[in-house]
């Protein structure tokens, strides 16, 4: 089996393999779950050929039997500058040995990414995906679980807004980063956004990637000297559901009040709503479940460290004597 960079002559075969897998996924997943996978760059859910991506193929007896695709993270970042890559696609042709082809493609991508200067590879997979072993065998480890909750007709609970809630201001970004660090386990934040600059790039990727053009977006924070909560409500003008995003400390009634605030920001919209939360956001998951939301799907977030990052020593004030 030969592993190589994909060429123009391979694109028709790649599209055929992806189309075949797309049909199987569409038949197996509920429409809302399928739409979420498409919008959130879940593995094998989309085939973005309009942006710069890395594509490698496996060839056996002159025939392409599989391919793997990755892009810079955040999506759309120029590949030569990308130090972090996201795996977007891994497909093996029907009739080929998935246990042989898939791990070989993953290994090849890791080697090529390292040669290009990348330090980390991320991938998002549905829970129970048959391709999961291919990543685990090549050193990928799970660092978080993403839970997507969905409601056809969400219902506001008490209707009480949190005390000290206000619209987001331009100068809130650094305080929002501090809130992100407080609610996110250190093992996750050190991978995703160890610095404020990296968080700024990922903040739009993880919380803004589902926004439709023309969507009506409102953001509010709960400001009690320091920020303890944040909510973004995006009213969709198209067929996709409204989107709610949250960061919240697990303080007594705060999660429920923040959920009600988010729903109130959607106004009189009759569209369904969904929200992506992590396993450590159980307080917000419970609050939304109490307002008509149920679990739509669970996705696993995996990472592979290609190179060890050495932290830069921080400069500090040194006492001077004499």
Characterise this structure.
- This protein is α+β, with helices and mostly antiparallel strands.
- The chain has 2 domains: 138 residues, Aminopeptidase (3-Layer(aba) Sandwich); 150 residues, 3-Layer(aba) Sandwich (Aminopeptidase).
- It is built from 9 helices and 12 strands.
- Strands 1-2-3-4-5-12-6-11-10-9-8-7 form a 12-stranded mixed sheet, with helices on both faces.
- β10, α8 and β11 form a beta-alpha-beta unit.
- The C terminus is likely disordered.
Strand runs, count? 12
As a percent range, the share of helical residues equals 25-40%
What is the overall pLDDT average?
85
Q: What CATH first level of the largest domain would be assigned?
A: Alpha Beta
Q: What gross morphology would you assign? A: globular
The CATH topology name of the largest domain reads Aminopeptidase
Low-confidence stretches: 206-214, 318-322
Q: H/E element string?
A: EHHEEEHEHEEHHHEEEHEHE
Strand order of the largest sheet: 1-2-3-4-5-12-6-11-10-9-8-7
CATH superfamily of the largest domain: Gcn5-related N-acetyltransferase (GNAT)
Number of helices: 9
What fraction of residues sit in β-strands? 25-35%
- Note the main sheet: 12 strands, mixed
CA radius of gyration: 21 Å
Whole-number total of structural domains: 2
In whole angstroms, the N-to-C terminal distance is: 71 Å
- What is the CATH architecture assignment of the largest domain? 3-Layer(aba) Sandwich
Secondary-structure-based class equals alpha+beta
